[in-house]
C-alpha cells in the first residue's frame, strides 16, 4: 500500500470563490484508492471485450460479464446488507438507468392511464424529471407518497437511507390499491449508516458511485426477485443503450475484488479496509460539522439516533452523504442564502418536494471544499 | 506490431450447430487489434476518473472528457467523412442512446399530439421499439417514410449507408409540413463504403461499435449544428444515465489515437492501417459471397455500384456490414428457411418493415461462422 499523506493540500480558497456542493460527486473516496496504489489498476487490451455480449449463458442479463455477477453477490455476502440468494442481478448504466428500467418493468404494459410513481417528500430531486421527461403513457410522476389518497395502483420508491436527509425509511402509502415497491438502497452501506439487517425486498437498487465512490464509471445493479421483472428491466437497458460498458464492468470486478479481498484475506489492517476507512473519514467530517452547527444561529440539522451495525460490530450514528440543512427563522430561501451570503452552491428544498427553508449540501466532496464550507458556516451570523 | 496469423483457426462447426448471424456483433475487427498488440492497451488506476464530471468548462456536454472531443474531431478530419468545424459534439452510451436523445431534442416540448418519427423501409429494426417502448407523449413511431402522407411536422431518420441494405440514402418524405432530420451515419466509414463527400447535416450520429468494432464499449457521438439541440440531447443523456462511462471514454481516446496516428505518422505501412486492413477484410468476404450467391438458385443479393472514395483514392464497390438476402420464388419466409434448412439465425424482413422474403445476415462476425455460412449457402438447393 502506497502511504500517501492524508492531509488536505490546503489549497487556499478565496472567500469570493463559489464552492460547488450542489451535486453529490463522491470524490472524497479518491484518497483511499490513491493509498491502495497500483493494485487497483485495470489493463484492457485493444482486442478485448469488443462484443456486445457479456454472457451468452445468462438468460436474463445477457450483456453482464459472469465475473460481474459473482462480484456483486460476493460484496453483499461480505457486507451483509442485502439478500442475493435466489435473486436475479441486472446491471445498468448507473442506478439512474436502472431506476427507469424498474419503473418500466413494474408498469402495466397496456394501461388505461399511466400508473403513478410516488416517493415520500423530501425525495431524491431527480426522480420527478426522470419519470416525466418523455411524458410516458405507461407511468407518470405522482408526487409525495405520504399524501397519496387515490384508490389506484401505484409504484412507490423507497430511498433508504434517504437522499437528501439520511433517514431509514419504509413504505408510507396507505391506499387500498395494489402498490409495487422499488427500494433504492444507494446509501445502504456501512460508511453511511449502520447495517442493521439484510435487506430483502422484491426490487433493490444499488450504485457503484455511492458504494466505492466511482461515479465516473456509471454503473449500478438491481437485485430482483421475479424473473419476469428482471427480464423486462434487461429489455429496457437493451433498448436504451444495448447494455453496459465492458470497460466499466472490468473495473467493477477489480475494485469490488479489492474491497472484498481486504475483508476475506487474513492479515488486513482494519484501518486499511475500505468501509472502515471511509466511515472514519465521513464520521470525522460529521463531527466537525456538528461542532459548527451546534453553535450556529443560522442553520440547523436534525440529529440521528445510534444503532448497532452488524458489519462493524459497533453502535454509531449514521454519517450520511449529504447535509440536510435547515435555515432558521427569517431566512425563507436557504439555497439563495447559501449562494448569496456564503458563496456555497447547494440544492434547495423545493427540488426535493419540500420547503425552500431546506437545502442539501454534499458531504462527499473534496477536503478543501468541505473545510472552506465549515469556515463559512461558522462565520455566518444572523442579521 | 505483433504478427499474428491471419488464418482462421478452422474450428470445425458441426452441420447441426446453429450459426448466430442475427446480430451485427463486429468481432471481425478483433484480429486487427490483436495484431496491433499492447500499443492499444489502456491502464486505469483505482483513483482515476471517479467524478461524474468530464469537463467543467464545456457548457454543453459536461460529462465528456476534453480529449474525447479532440479525438472525435481528429478522426473526422483524418477520414474526411463529416464536417465538425463549428459543430457541437455530444457523446452517449452508444448511438442507441443518442438516437433517443436526438428524437427527444427535436420533438416539440408541449405537443398537442406526438410527432411522427419516420424512416424509409427497409429501416433499422430497432428504431420502432426504441421509439415506442415508453409510449411517449412527445413522439411516436410513424412507420415507412416513403409512404408518409400527412401534412404534419415529422422527424425523419436517414440511415446512410442503410442498415440493413447498405444503400446510400437521402431524405424521402414529400410532405409540405416541416420536417427535422436525423442522419444516422453509423456505417459511413471507408471500410464499408466509398467516402464520396464530407457529410454536413444538422444532426449526425456515429458509433464506436461500427467504426473500430468496439461494440462492448457502448460509445457513440453526435455532431450537432444547433447548440440548443446539443444541450437538449445532453440533458437527455444526463437524465437517462448521468453521462457516459469514463473508462469507455479513456479507451475511445486510445483507440482513435492509434487509428489516426497510423495515418498521420510517416512510415506506416498501408496494409497495417485500420481502414485499409478492414476494407480488405470485408472485400474479401464480399468476393467470396458473390461467388456463392451468383451460383445460387435459392438466394440473391442486389448489386452495388462502384464509386470513387476520397479517402482511399480508389474506385470500389461498398462492402456493407450486412448481407441483405432475398429468397427466390417459392420461399416466402427467408428467416425461417435459413433457420430450418441451413441452421443459420438471421433477422427477417418484417423487422425492417418489408417483406419476409428478405433477411439480414451479419457480415462482421467470426471467420469460422462466415465460412460455415458460405458453405451452407453454396450447398442449399431449391427443392
From TrEMBL, chains A, B:
Domain of life: Eukaryota
Gene Ontology BP term (one): amino acid metabolic process
Keyword terms, alphabetized: Aminotransferase, Pyridoxal phosphate, Transferase
Organism: Vigna radiata var. radiata (Mung bean)
Listed SUPFAM superfamilies: PLP-dependent transferases (SSF53383)
Name of protein: L-tryptophan--pyruvate aminotransferase 1
Domain Alliinase C-terminal: 19-379
Gene3D superfamilies, sorted: Aspartate Aminotransferase, domain 1 (3.90.1150.10), EGF-like, alliinase (2.10.25.30), Type I PLP-dependent aspartate aminotransferase-like (Major domain) (3.40.640.10)
Amino acid at each position: 500500500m502506497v502511504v500517501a499523506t492524508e492531509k488536505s493540500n490546503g489549497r487556499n480558497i478565496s472567500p469570493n470563490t463559489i464552492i460547488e456542493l450542489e451535486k453529490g460527486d463522491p470524490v472524497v473516496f479518491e484518497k483511499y484508492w490513491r493509498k491502495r496504489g497500483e493494485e487497483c489498476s485495470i489493463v484492457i487490451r485493444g482486442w478485448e471485450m469488443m462484443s456486445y455480449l457479456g454472457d451468452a449463458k445468462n438468460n436474463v442479463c445477457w450483456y453482464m460479464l459472469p465475473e460481474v455477477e459473482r462480484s456483486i453477490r460476493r460484496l453483499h455476502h461480505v457486507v451483509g446488507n442485502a439478500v442475493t440468494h435466489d435473486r436475479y442481478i441486472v446491471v445498468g448504466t448507473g442506478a439512474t438507468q436502472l431506476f427507469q428500467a424498474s419503473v418500466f418493468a413494474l408498469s402495466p404494459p397496456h394501461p388505461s392511464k399511466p400508473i403513478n410513481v410516488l416517493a415520500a417528500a423530501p425525495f431524491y430531486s431527480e426522480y420527478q424529471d426522470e419519470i416525466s421527461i418523455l411524458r410516458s403513457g405507461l407511468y407518470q410522476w405522482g408526487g409525495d407518497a405520504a399524501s397519496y389518497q387515490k384508490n389506484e395502483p401505484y409504484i412507490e420508491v423507497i430511498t433508504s437511507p434517504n437522499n437528501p436527509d439520511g433517514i431509514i425509511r419504509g413504505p408510507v402509502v396507505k391506499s387500498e390499491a395494489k402498490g409495487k415497491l422499488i427500494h433504492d438502497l444507494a446509501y445502504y452501506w456501512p460508511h453511511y449508516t449502520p447495517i442493521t439487517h439484510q435487506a430483502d425486498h422484491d426490487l433493490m437498487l444499488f450504485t457503484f458511485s455511492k458504494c466505492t465512490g466511482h461515479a465516473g464509471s456509471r454503473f449500478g445493479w438491481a437485485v430482483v426477485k421475479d424473473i419476469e421483472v428482471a427480464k423486462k428491466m434487461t429489455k429496457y437497458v437493451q433498448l436504451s443503450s444495448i447494455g453496459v460498458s465492458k470497460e466499466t464492468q472490468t473495473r467493477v470486478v477489480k475494485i469490488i475484488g479489492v474491497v472484498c479481498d481486504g475483508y476475506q484475506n487474513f492479515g488486513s489492517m482494519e484501518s486499511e479496509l475500505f468501509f472502515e476507512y471511509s466511515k472514519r473519514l465521513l464520521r470525522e467530517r460529521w463531527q466537525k460539522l456538528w461542532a459548527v452547527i451546534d453553535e450556529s444561529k443560522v442553520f440547523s440539522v436534525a440529529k440521528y439516533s445510534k444503532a448497532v451495525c452488524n458489519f462493524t460490530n459497533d453502535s454509531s450514528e449514521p454519517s450520511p452523504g449529504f447535509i440536510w440543512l435547515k435555515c432558521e427563522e427569517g431566512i425563507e430561501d436557504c439555497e439563495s442564502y447559501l449562494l448569496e451570503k456564503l458563496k456555497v452552491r447547494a440544492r434547495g428544498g423545493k427540488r426535493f418536494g419540500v420547503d425552500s427553508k431546506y437545502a442539501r449540501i454534499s458531504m462527499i466532496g473534496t477536503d478543501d471544499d468541505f473545510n472552506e464550507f465549515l469556515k463559512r458556516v461558522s462565520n455566518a451570523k444572523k442579521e
